[in-house]
Recover the amino acids of this structure.
């Protein structure tokens, strides 16, 4: 695979308004050639509108979309070098699979023998070889989606757009399709742009993710950066689960910092923070980064934490809620200070879930490298 | 033995309940008994056609020899054919327009389009009569131009039915299919031809059937718009019945029934019953 470097799609200050509603608000971003790009956001955040503007079904109220160096402002959807896989798949119900996949080539006047070869190749690519004579109503939802994929890929677009591609599939099939889509993308080398509201989907498939909130880009980053270094509370909260505490910055040195959070206590960090001393900030800690100790086991840890306060964060509380998820258990713990803390504990052995129950007094610690300070 | 091996009737198995079966049978009898009697008596060897006197085919011969009856039948079929073609085009376009576009006074346009369906036929007939008299529509032209007034009148009350059926069919159209075709490089016209038209097809078949049968058996409006030399089948039958109900009328009617049943069967066969049912 070639290193993705040059931008294939440039979105320049694009806004879209429907009457008084601003769906997309001054968005600028570059999508690089050959990458798997995901637009992630809650429903109604404008991500689909953005995708439809790239496809040409909506025109920007302001701004410019450039695909492969060409301004798309006056280019209708049927002339754009992009193809789209629709949420409903939009497979033509009166055409066989072969006719569906070959439709785009047929109307652009490609020779019959070439159509035949390319349709077959495309169907092989999505693992539908031998299904050519089927009618869409004889296929499952997952198979119809593959037909829609093949129908777009056969056009050899510069960019493939996918609108919520996995939302209609059941959980098992969705997990499988996540792998297949990324494998497919690497194989064909086409830039994929996917819209989704599902953070697992985004994290597992994307090279880079743009988190969209209220029509604006909240953060644009690689999946692991997005998860471990969220830029603001919206991203921290939308991508994955998180404990967020408001507090005041009380210690701010180049290699360590502390935030005093009412209801929790001081939370120590092993890195500096860009923020004025005494200013209001938020601290976010992911539930899986907190270690829970059985009663009695806490003392030793507390001792260690006391020895190096900037090395470990320590807290005590009472279990108020438990949710057994099989591979792990989710705890809701009321801290001594009164704040609620969520902790995720992997069930490493079969009997792990028996260690705790409601109203147990527990202690927990987390590394000072784990919390993230958010300024907005 | 089947009689003793029956499984118990489940609560929702209405078709296996006696009262339901008798009700269905009664409804069927009510609907079709008159038609069956009409057909049987077309073979009756009796001039007065009240009592069964014996089997004969001579009234079919007589009906087919009656040149004015045959002429009326040919007229009716011609009018129905032309009215169907025009209604289909006009109705389909109107249906697509109402589905596709938003424009000022759309509700008014929609309402007025259904007027020919709800206005009493007698009023339509009188209105047509006055209209054609006022514009001095030429009469006494050569066949089939002499049928033009009746054909136009038929189109006016047939095409709203087609428009309604097409419109309701289009409501189930997935607009993403249209966008998918555009996305794959289709022009507006190609989208219409390759995606929209196939979706509309069952409603077009159903609409054509509706228009054809409505036109074929229309009496009131035709009565007001036909001239002395342009008589249609229903009008002719009416004038024959005024003298006496002979088996000849029965024979002609039976032929017409068979014709429409065959046409409907062909349409259903072409389209599939499911498709037509979906169109409504």
């Amino acid at each position: 695979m070639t290193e993705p470097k040059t931008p294939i799609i440039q979105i320049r200050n694009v806004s879209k308004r429907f009457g008084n509603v601003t769906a997309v608000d001054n968005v600028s971003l570059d999508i690089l050639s050959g990458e798997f790009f995901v637009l992630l956001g809650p429903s109604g955040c404008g991500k689909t509108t953005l995708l439809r503007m790239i496809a040409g079904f909506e025109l920007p109220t302001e701004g410019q979309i450039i695909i492969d160096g060409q301004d798309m402002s006056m280019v209708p959807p049927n002339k754009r070098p992009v193809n789209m896989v629709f949420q409903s798949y939009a497979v033509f119900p009166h055409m066989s699979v072969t006719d569906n996949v070959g439709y785009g080539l047929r109307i652009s006047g490609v020779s019959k023998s070439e159509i035949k070869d390319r349709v077959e190749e495309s169907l092989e690519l999505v693992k539908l070889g031998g299904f050519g004579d089927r009618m869409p109503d004889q296929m499952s939802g997952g198979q119809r989606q593959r037909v829609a994929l093949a129908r777009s890929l056969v056009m050899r677009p510069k960019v493939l757009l996918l609108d919520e591609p996995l939302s209609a599939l059941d959980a098992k099939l969705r997990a499988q399709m996540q792998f297949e889509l990324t494998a497919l993308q690497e194989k064909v080398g086409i830039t994929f742009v996917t819209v989704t509201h599902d953070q697992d989907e985004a994290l597992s498939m994307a090279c880079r993710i743009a988190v969209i909130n209220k029509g604006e880009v909240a953060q644009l980053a690689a999946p692991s950066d997005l998860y471990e270094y969220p830029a603001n509370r919206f991203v921290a909260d939308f991508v994955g689960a998180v404990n967020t505490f408001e507090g005041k910055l009380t210690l701010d040195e180049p290699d360590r910092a502390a935030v005093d959070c009412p209801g929790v206590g001081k939370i120590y960090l092993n890195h500096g923070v860009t923020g004025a001393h005494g200013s209001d900030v938020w601290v976010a800690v992911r539930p899986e980064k907190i270690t829970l100790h059985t009663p009695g086991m806490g003392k030793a840890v507390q001792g260690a934490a006391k020895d190096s306060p900037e090395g470990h964060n320590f807290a005590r509380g009472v279990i108020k809620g438990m949710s057994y998820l099989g591979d792990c258990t989710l705890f809701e713990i009321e801290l001594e200070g009164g704040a609620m803390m969520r902790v995720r504990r992997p069930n490493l052995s079969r009997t792990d879930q028996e260690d705790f129950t409601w109203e147990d007094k527990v202690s927990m610690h987390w590394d000072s490298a784990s919390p993230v300070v958010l300024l907005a | 033995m089947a009689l003793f091996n029956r499984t118990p009737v489940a609560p929702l198995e209405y078709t296996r309940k006696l009262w339901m079966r008798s009700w269905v049978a009664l409804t069927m009898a009510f609907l079709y008994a008159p038609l069956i009697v009409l057909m049987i008596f077309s073979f009756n060897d009796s001039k007065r056609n009240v009592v069964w006197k014996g089997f004969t085919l001579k009234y079919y011969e007589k009906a087919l020899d009656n040149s004015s009856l045959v002429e009326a039948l040919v007229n009716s079929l011609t009018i129905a054919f032309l009215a169907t073609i025009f209604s289909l085009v006009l109705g389909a376009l109107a249906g697509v327009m109402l589905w596709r576009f938003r424009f000022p006074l759309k509700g008014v346009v929609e309402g007025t389009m259904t007027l020919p369906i709800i206005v009493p036929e007698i009023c339509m007939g009188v209105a047509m009569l006055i209209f054609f008299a006022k514009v001095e529509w030429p009469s006494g032209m050569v066949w089939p131009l002499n049928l033009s007034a009746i054909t136009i009148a038929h189109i006016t009350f047939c095409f709203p039915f087609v428009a309604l059926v097409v419109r309701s069919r289009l409501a189930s159209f997935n607009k993403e299919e249209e966008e998918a075709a555009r996305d794959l490089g289709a022009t507006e016209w190609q989208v219409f031809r390759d995606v929209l038209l196939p979706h509309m097809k069952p409603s077009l078949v159903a609409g054509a059937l509706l228009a054809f049968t409505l036109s074929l058996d229309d009496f009131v409006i035709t009565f007001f718009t036909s001239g002395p030399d342009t008589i249609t089948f229903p009008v002719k039958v009416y004038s024959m019945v005024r003298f006496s109900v002979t088996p000849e009328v029965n024979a002609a009617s039976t032929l017409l029934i068979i014709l429409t049943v065959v046409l409907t069967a062909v349409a259903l066969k072409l389209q599939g019953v499911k498709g037509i049912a979906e169109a409504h």
Q: What stands out?
A: Chain A touches chain B at residues 55, 57, 76-79, 82-84, 86-88, 90, 92-94, 103-104, 107-108, 148, 151-152, 155 (CB under 8 Å). The two ends of chain A are 38 Å apart (CA to CA).
